Amino acid sequence: MKMRLQNFLLTCSLVMMSALALAAEPLPIFDAHMHYNIEARNTWSPQRVIALWRKLGIRAVLATSRPNDGTLDLIAQNAPDIKIVPFLRPYRVQPDRHDWFANSEIERFVENELQRGIYRGIGEFHIFGKDADAPYMAKIARLAKARDLWLHAHSDEDAIERILHQAPGVKLIWAHTGMSTSLDKVEAMFVQYPNLVGELSFRSDLEQNGSLNPQWKRLFLRYPGRFVLGTDTWVTSRWDDVPQLIGFYRRMLSELPADIAERIAYKNGLTMFGLQ
Questions:
Q1: Going from the N-terminus, what domains does the chain have, and what CATH number goes with each?
Q2: Of 80, 107, 128, 155, which residue has the fewest beta carbons closer than 10 angstroms?
């Protein structure tokens, strides 16, 4: 009897220790805004990038690069524990960001890249205001809708609405959720466009006095399936900031109910791309 009691107590102790260990594990992250550009590749090898993601608990990544070779290099690492979702970025060199939507060479470049058959979306691209009515932008939006691809747009709210009107129902990730767009406008657009997802990097108003901004918290609670996180490693120096950025996101999400924190941290991204 005494031996059975000891075994029972030992089993209970092990179960509790396992539960505590699981609870202590950091929240997994889906990084939905990452660039592995040519400049970063001079100092950050693909192996170093993968090692950083493993260390930080980044389990999945929406990968874009200028040029797209960087994304292909990351995929070639065949990391079984990190899901890489490749997006086609319509930039060959940095200046392309300014006129990609009016450049016939970019159109041919994108057509050739799409033939790889690996991309789940197009972007991140930059476009603002009435430039979003450019014929090629409209073509890209309709192509994405027809092929069930996502768009990833760094744009003001005017351009986002123009794109969504060109291809109603197209799925669009709004980089930085407009960066400085008022939260009242963000909410109005979420109501109007159910296929719009907000990505949170560079939103300086996420915190207020060291805590999660109450207006953001209300949006997260109302639209728990409509937000994703991102590090946006757009310049090489930003890679050094990734640990701090991930720490910030985890602190912010700790103020939300656990199930909603998990959705924003990684489950929304997995669901968007059928990875669950």
A1: 26-272 (3.20.20.140)
A2: 80
